[in-house]
Amino acid sequence: MQLTESAKIVTRNNIQLLQIDNSFATAEISLFGGHILSFIPKHDNRERLWVSEKAIFDGKKPIRGGIPICWPWFGPHATSTNLAAHGYVRTQTWEIIGSEEKDSGTLIILTPNSSNDDGLSGTAQLTLSVIVGHQLKIQLRTTNIGAESLTYNCALHSYFAISNIHHCELRGLSGQYSDKTRDFQICDTPHPYQFSEETDRVHLQQPKQLSIIDEQTTTEIFSSGHDSIVVWNPWKQKSISMDDMADDSYLTMLCVETSVTQNQEVNIGETHILEQVIL
Question: What is the pTM of this model?
Fold first, then answer.
């Protein structure tokens, strides 16, 4: 695949990284997992994404941080305990199948080594489309190329960089959520939405716009094609227990995930698009 002039491939440990540097922004995508690691718009030179300082780049373990691709299930598999959490494409090598300079930025299209593996009932073709411009536009496209209806879950499991979780507020959510830390108890969304403990919440809502207010900065997140927003921060004890997070990692990250958790159905020959746009 001939890369556009703003893109190049470098190697870090056992992983190939696609680096993009155009007039709008810089970005980095790991071909292991089709995993976006960095997005820095040039108008403010502020990193939008968070990657753990202890992330493992061995080409085997999923990378902690950035935007992992969870597909074709989110969390544990519905019926099998032998299958890895969050699906199988985040530990596959992805291939670049498209590269183009557009007025809006640099377009990169990737596809995993295999869209079909154990745990998926049906036949799909998965592609990831990324435009690096003034904004980062991500589209996860699932096309049903089989002979029967296809059902799956997925998420753009985005880790956002913040200065301090204690001074952070999330805006744009309302109603109720399911709280995993409280045995999936249904709770009311707090206002203001701030953080003081481990957070693992599924909001069954489809807000188009969310904002992370972090002291003097704001990160805007636009979503479509989703049925849920998942909000996650491991807090101190869980950070300590993870070998790919520093003990204080929870202070500088917040996951706000554009997700499908309620089973997306795609008819034969049709395509579902899960989209997240980051400003």
Answer: 0.97
